[in-house]
Amino acid sequence: MRERKRPEFPKRAVVTAGMPYGNKELHFGHVGGLFVHADTYARFLRDRIGKDNVIFVSGTDCYGSPIAANYRQLVEEGKITGSLEDYVRKNYEKQKEVLDKYDMNLNLYAASGLDRAGEIHKEVSEKIFNTLYEHDYLVKMSTPQFYDPDFKVLLNGRQVVGKCPIDGCQSDKAYADECALGHMYMPNELIDPKSVLSGKKPELRDVTNWYYKLEDYTEALKGQMDYLKQHSTARKYLIKTIEEFLKQPIIYVKRKQLEDGVASLQAKLPKHTIIDEPKKPSITFIFDNLNDRDKAREVLDSMGLHFRTGKTLVPFRLSGNIDWGIKVPEKEGLDDLTFWVWPESLWAPISFTKTYLESIGEDKDEWKNWWLSEESKVYQFIGEDNIYFYGIAEMAMGLSLLGIDSKDQVDWEHVNLPHLVPNNHVLFMDKKASSSSDIKPPMAEELLDHYTAEQLRMHFLSLGLAKKSVSFMPQVYMPEEERQGPDTVLKDGNLLTNVFNRLVRSCFYTAQKYFDTKIPHGEVSEEILHLSKDAVLNYEMHMYRHDFHRIVYVLDSYIRKLNKYWVNHMKKADTDENNDLRKQVLVDAFYGVKSALTLIHPIAPTSCEMVRDYLQVSENIWNWDYIFEPISALMDDVATHELKYLEPRIDFFKKHESQFK
Ligand SMILES: [Zn+2]
């Protein structure tokens, strides 16, 4: 057999999962859309490159106006007492508890505003701000912010709703400067703004904030996309989504408004080019820079013309004026600003890595060896709506912090920015979680009343969120009359609880009955060696590419073939009373079970540990250095090695108790 090229993994790795907000418990989508994938990958890497070479961190996103607003509302309704911090802490602890119930093995699940991680995060935030400021990547800008004259307050981002100004946007909600689909714009661009306090159109007041000069990095980011297309496993839709933002500033004006013709309008606008196709209802005006586009917007506004803007990079706001946030270092007399929660949450995983390193007695400055070293790689599992923040704002700021200027030629071969793994949404019963529906989407914890953590882990991995949104349709949440056929959520879990569980048990019972509770010695057959190697190499490649649903296919095919091999040959051995054949099949089956266990371990760790305990083999069974070794390589003393006795009717991979009714 020709040797296949195997993927290369880094020496060290950091895995992060998008941070849940501190105003809620975990929703099924947090677990099913992100954490299961991140945890499976982190567990795989620990097996593949060594337990001590992987740090998996995430945490509660503590700050931000929605959290403060929810808190105030609950206090007003008399539903909670205590401080805002108490409220966030309660949610943080609940999130942590639920992640534990799902067998998530994070090195640290922290909170950006609490305890030691909160302290370190303040230091990191200050340091990053000062570095960006000192190297002239920040700009102080007065921009209009919404103000509600009835309530006499400046409104925060979420207190204003309207329509997204980005051409073609399908979002159902848009806030002061971002829409529900993650488009960014300036507040004065929002269409039909309404204050959620008074319900009236708010006024605009100028407020001064710090902005990061994100738009300067447009060309650099284009270069990064070209590099990623050639040299990485970055998902295609990630690159496509990012590239949509890397366009020149554009304004679309409906042709029918221009009674005096295009030429008279063109004369009033700053330097631009136009695309004027008679068949299209809009004329496209392309500008060299944001400044010119904004001058053009003023001209169009003054003429009373309607228009839409195209996606383009705009300065990225770093600060805001809500109290519940980390204080921004005072510069140039601006002394009452706090960090906007988005930028601060982008560097929170660095703060968490430092916190973790300190907690295990290492120097927290070692974080650089994990985040920046060429021997290391950072993998960030994020939601599709957050690509703008992680894929654009974070990458550009990363370049700035590395001292790479926007005009510099970037050597992408040696600039080690995080690798993003964006997942699409898991929809509940074909609907987005935010949309109204008769059936309320379940919280992550509730699902465990009906399914085991391992059944759900298998199912969520099988959904294929790498390409498109997929519906999650647990039968227990459907009305009785709509429940047809088997529960789709159990399909992939059944592979473990039925097929594989039966095979493992059969191996043990056969060893107990015919071979003194020992694994017989012997050469594994070519057929099984070949089958196993193929499964291992396919699995490894899919893991490398974060194609989790393909991993589930590989396991399905492999385990079913092993099982078929067992059933066919054992039947013949029993019929012929052929103990040599029985021995050979058992040798082969134990080898297959051993290989499959290593592959299943990142997904169903608790059950796999139970099998290991009964096999009485060392933890090296999880270590990929042993992936092709015979099972005897895992025994202390091959001559005397005995299995742990398996009583009748014991299951390794268990169903949920509710499934026995
Ligand atoms: Zn939008």
From TrEMBL:
Pfam family, one: tRNA-synt_1g
Alphabetic keyword roster: Aminoacyl-tRNA synthetase, ATP-binding, Ligase, Nucleotide-binding, Protein biosynthesis
Source superkingdom: Bacteria
The Methionyl/Leucyl tRNA synthetase domain, residue ranges: 14-249, 312-475
KW Amino-acid biosynthesis (keyword) present: no
InterPro entries per the UniProt record, alphabetical: Met-tRNA_ligase_1 (IPR023458), Methionyl/Leucyl_tRNA_Synth (IPR015413), MetRS_Zn (IPR029038), Rossmann-like_a/b/a_fold (IPR014729), tRNAsynth_Ia_anticodon-bd (IPR009080)
Catalytic activity: tRNA(Met) + L-methionine + ATP = L-methionyl-tRNA(Met) + AMP + diphosphate
Any GO MF annotation of the entry: ATP binding
Keyword Protein biosynthesis: yes
Entry's Gene Ontology cellular component terms: cytosol
BP terms from Gene Ontology: methionyl-tRNA aminoacylation
Membership in a protein family: Belongs to the class-I aminoacyl-tRNA synthetase family. MetG type 1 subfamily.
UniProt name for this protein: Class I tRNA ligase family protein
Organism expressing this protein natively: Vallitalea pronyensis
